[in-house]
Design brief:
alpha+beta; FomD barrel-like fold; seven-stranded mixed barrel; 10 strands
C-alpha cells in the first residue's frame, strides 16, 4: 500500500504470532508520517485486546511503524507504571491490503521505565521458548537479536525517534485529533 489514510482516520493495529494465531488488536487513529515512518495514536480509554485479555489504554500513546517493518515503537504519556518507551520487535510489520497496519509479534521487547527500573530487553524467556516451538529461521533470530541490542543502545542514548521531543510532537498531534 502506498497511499495512506487521512490523519484522523480510525484503524485497528493487528498483531499475530509467528504461527498465525491472533494476538493484540489496538484501536487507534492514523496521525501521519515523518522521516521515521508512520505514526498512530491511541487515546486513554481506547481498547486493546487479545485472546484472553481485554483492556483500555491507561494513558495516551503514539506508535511508530518504521519502513523497516521490524519493530513498533510505542511512546506513552504519563503511564502509571512510568513506562515511557515500549518497543515490540516484529516481523513483516506493514500496511495490509485492507489499509490497516499488521505484523507478527516476535516476543522480544525493549523497555524504558522511568521509575528506577531503567532500560532493558524484555521477554527473553518467551523469545527462547517460541523460537524453538515456532521454528524461527536462523536469519530471523540473528537479525532480531542484533536489532534488540541496537534498539536498547539507541533508547539509552535518547536518539530520535526514541526521545521525548519526538514523543511530545506526535502526542500533540493526537491531542489535536481527540474528540
Amino acid at each position: 500500500m502506498t497511499d495512506r489514510p487521512a490523519p484522523g482516520t480510525r484503524l485497528t493495529f493487528r498483531w499475530r504470532k509467528w504461527n498465525g494465531a491472533p494476538h493484540w488488536e489496538h484501536d487507534c487513529v492514523y496521525l501521519g508520517g515523518d522521516r521515521w515512518g508512520d505514526w498512530f495514536g491511541q487515546s486513554a480509554g481506547w481498547r486493546s485486546h487479545r485472546p484472553g485479555r481485554d483492556m483500555r489504554a491507561e494513558t495516551a500513546n503514539v506508535t511508530l511503524l518504521p519502513p523497516s517493518g521490524d519493530y513498533a515503537l510505542t511512546l506513552n504519556r504519563d503511564h502509571p507504571r512510568r513506562v515511557f518507551v515500549y518497543i515490540d520487535l516484529a516481523w513483516d510489520l506493514r500496511w495490509a491490503e485492507n489499509g490497516e497496519p499488521e505484523g507478527v509479534d516476535m516476543d522480544l521487547d525493549v523497555v524504558r521505565a522511568d521509575d528506577g527500573r531503567g532500560i532493558w530487553i524484555d521477554d527473553r524467556d518467551e523469545w527462547d521458548e517460541h523460537r524453538v516451538a515456532y521454528g524461527y529461521p536462523p536469519h530471523v533470530v540473528a537479525h532480531l537479536e542484533a536489532l534488540a541490542v541496537d534498539l536498547e543502545a539507541r533508547v539509552r542514548a535518547a536518539e530520535a525517534p526514541f526521545d521525548e521531543t519526538t514523543a511530545g510532537a506526535w502526542l500533540a498531534v493526537l491531542s489535536r485529533l481527540e474528540p
